[in-house]
Design goal:
The complex is a heterodimer of chains A (222) and B (292). By secondary structure, chain A is mostly helical. Chain A has helices at residues 2-42, 44-53, 65-82, 87-91, 97-130, 133-162, 166-181, 196-206, 209-218. Chain A is elongated, with a radius of gyration of 20 Å. Classes of the chains: A mainly alpha (222), B alpha/beta (292).
C-alpha cells in the first residue's frame, strides 16, 4: 500500500523531478564556467581577494533555485489532489488518513532533499578543486539557508494547496512568504550559522501545517 | 434486514440556506437505493456527509455501523466510491491506475477491470485525462468492479453521459448487483433508465424527503390524472399534487384511486372527462417535485 502511494506521487512528479535535475545541473555548470571566466579575467589573486574581502557570492543563481524547486514540487504534487477534490479519492483509500498524508509529505520532502543534497554536494565538491577548504566551508554556510528554504517552500506550498478555502489560502500564502523571507536576509557569509537550528526547527514544525489543512478539508469547509 | 447505511436526524445549512432538516433514511443490505432530486437539493451533500467529507450541523450517519467521520480503513475498503463526474486520478494511464489501486484491496479482480475496458477503444497507455466523459465513466466503473466492494456509493453517475453510456453503465451495474448481492446507494438528477436499476427510491425536495418508497410501488400506484374544468385554480392537498393547467386540460398527480381523486377535485369545482395514466419513473418524479 505504501508503495502505491509513492507510485502515485512519482507519476505526478516525475517530469518535474527530471526538469529540476536538468535545471540544477545546468545552473551548476554555468556557475563553474562563470567562476572560471572571472578567475581568468580578474586573475586568481584578485578573485581570491574579492571572495575574502568583498564576500562575493559564488553561486548567486542558487539563491532562489531551491525555493522555486520546493514550490514547483509542492504544486505538482498537491494541485491535482485539490482539482475536482480528488483528495477525497486519496483519503478514501483503506489506509489511515494521517499515514497517507505523512507518506505524501515524506515523499516530496525526500525528493526535495535528494535534489538539494545532490546539488549542494556537487557544488561543494567542484569548489573543493578550485579553492581552499575554508572557502568551501564559508560557501556551504552561505548556501545552507537557501537550501533549507527549499524544504520550507515545499511544506508551505502543501499547506496552501491543501487548504480548502480561498480566503484562508491567500492568508496562508502571505504568512508563508513572510516566513520564507527570513531565509533570505542580506548578511555576511556565515552570519546565518547560529540561526540555522531555528530555521530547521521551523521546517520540522511546518511539517504539521498540511495536516491542519486536510482536517479543514474533511470538515467540508468551503 | 440489516441496514448498511443509517442516517439519523441530519440537519445541514450552507450559510442561511437550509439543505435538510432532520433527514432520516436507511439503506438495507442487498438493495439498490436511488436518491433522486433536482439540482441543488443536496444529493452530493449527503454523499459527502456519509463519507466523512462534510460535518453536518447535527445528526449522524453510520456505514457498516461506524460513524461517518471515523470510518476505519477496513470499512473504507468495503466501500466503492464514485465521485460526481467520474473523477479519477487522471494523470495515470489505463494500466497505471489499475496497478495503483490493486495493492489496496485484497479481493482485487484485475480481470473485471480489463473485461470492461475491452469495450472501449482505448490503448492501455492512454492517459485518463485524454478520455471522453463516457470512457472515464467506464474506467471508474471497472475500478469499482475490480475492488469488489460490499457497498457502492455513486454520486450522480449519469452526469455527462450520453444515453448509450448511461444505459451501458446501468446494465453493468444491475448485473453486478444482482449476481454478487451488492448494496448500492446512488444519487442522480437524470431519472431516465433509473427504473431499470433501483429497488427503492428516495425523492428529495428542497429541505426534506418527499417520498421514500419501493420503485415498484411508485410505478404501480402513482398516476397522472387529466381533466377539464372551468375553475382557475385547485387547492393543493394531501391527495393530489402539482395540479396545473397544460393547454386546455388540467393535470394532477396522485397515489389515490380515480374515485378518490374525482371526489377531491369535485369539491367546489365542476370537472369532466377525468382520465388516468400510468407513469414512468421520470414522469412520477416530475409529478412529485413539479416541473420547475
Amino acid at each position: 500500500m505504501y508503495q502505491s502511494i509513492v507510485y502515485k506521487e512519482w507519476i505526478k512528479t516525475q517530469k518535474v523531478i527530471w526538469l529540476l535535475l536538468a535545471v540544477f545541473l545546468g545552473l551548476g555548470i554555468y556557475s563553474f564556467m562563470k567562476i572560471a571566466e572571472d578567475v581568468r579575467l580578474t586573475g586568481t589573486a584578485a578573485y581570491w581577494e574579492a571572495i575574502i574581502q568583498k564576500d562575493i557570492s559564488l553561486f548567486p543563481f542558487f539563491k532562489y533555485a531551491p525555493l522555486l524547486s520546493g514550490f514547483l514540487l509542492g504544486i505538482t504534487q498537491y494541485l491535482p489532489e485539490l482539482q475536482y477534490k480528488r483528495l477525497k479519492l486519496t483519503l478514501h483509500l483503506p489506509l489511515n488518513e494521517n499515514r497517507i498524508l505523512s507518506l505524501m509529505l515524506l515523499y516530496g520532502f525526500s525528493v526535495a532533499g535528494l535534489l538539494q543534497f545532490l546539488t549542494l554536494s556537487g557544488l561543494l565538491l567542484g569548489l573543493s578543486f578550485l579553492f581552499t577548504t575554508e572557502i568551501v566551508y564559508v560557501v556551504f554556510w552561505k548556501l545552507l539557508p537557501w537550501f533549507i528554504a527549499g524544504w520550507a517552500a515545499y511544506l508551505l506550498t502543501a499547506w496552501v494547496c491543501l487548504e480548502p478555502l480561498w480566503k484562508r489560502r491567500i492568508s496562508n500564502m502571505i504568512a508563508g512568504i513572510c516566513v520564507l523571507s527570513f531565509f533570505f536576509i542580506q548578511s555576511k557569509s556565515g552570519a546565518y550559522q547560529p540561526f540555522i537550528p531555528y530555521l530547521a526547527t521551523f521546517v520540522l514544525i511546518a511539517f504539521s501545517f498540511p495536516f491542519y489543512s486536510v482536517m479543514r478539508f474533511k470538515e467540508g469547509i468551503q | 434486514m440489516e441496514p448498511l447505511i443509517q442516517c439519523e436526524d441530519i440537519t445541514h445549512y450552507y450559510g442561511n440556506r437550509l439543505i435538510y432538516k432532520n433527514l432520516n433514511f436507511e439503506v438495507q443490505k442487498g438493495k439498490i437505493l436511488g436518491l433522486l432530486g433536482k439540482n441543488g437539493t443536496g444529493k452530493t451533500t449527503i454523499i459527502n456527509i456519509l463519507n466523512g467529507y462534510l460535518k453536518p450541523q447535527s445528526g449522524i450517519c453510520r456505514i457498516f455501523g461506524e460513524r461517518m467521520d471515523k470510518l476505519s480503513p477496513q470499512t473504507k475498503g468495503r466501500i466503492g466510491l464514485l465521485l460526481e463526474g467520474h473523477i479519477q486520478h487522471s494523470y495515470f494511464n489505463v494500466l497505471q491506475i489499475e496497478r495503483y489501486y490493486s495493492r489496496f484491496f485484497p479481493r482485487w479482480k484485475k480481470e473485471a477491470y480489463f473485461r470492461l475496458l475491452e469495450k472501449l477503444r482505448v490503448s492501455h497507455k492512454q492517459k485518463i485525462s485524454t478520455m471522453s466523459c463516457g470512457q472515464r465513466s467506464q474506467v471508474a466503473l471497472g475500478l469499482l468492479f475490480a475492488q469488489d466492494p460490499d457497498l457502492l456509493i455513486l454520486d450522480d453517475f449519469s452526469m455527462g453521459l450520453d444515453p448509450g453510456y448511461r444505459r451501458l453503465f446501468v446494465e453493468y451495474l444491475k448485473e453486478y448487483a444482482a449476481s454478487e448481492d451488492k448494496t448500492i446507494f446512488l444519487t442522480s438528477h437524470i431519472i431516465q433508465d433509473m427504473e431499470m436499476l433501483i429497488d427503492d427510491c428516495i425523492i428529495l425536495d428542497y429541505g426534506k424527503i418527499l417520498l421514500h418508497e419501493p420503485t415498484d410501488y411508485i410505478l404501480k400506484n402513482f398516476r397522472r390524472f387529466t381533466f377539464s374544468a372551468s375553475s382557475d385554480a385547485f387547492a393543493e392537498n394531501q391527495i393530489v399534487r402539482n395540479t396545473g393547467k397544460t393547454g386546455n386540460r388540467w393535470e394532477t398527480y396522485s397515489f389515490a384511486s380515480i374515485g378518490d381523486v374525482r371526489a377531491v377535485l369535485s369539491v367546489n369545482n365542476e370537472i369532466s372527462d377525468l382520465k388516468e395514466e400510468t407513469l414512468s419513473l421520470e414522469d412520477a418524479f416530475i409529478g412529485l417535485t413539479g416541473k420547475y
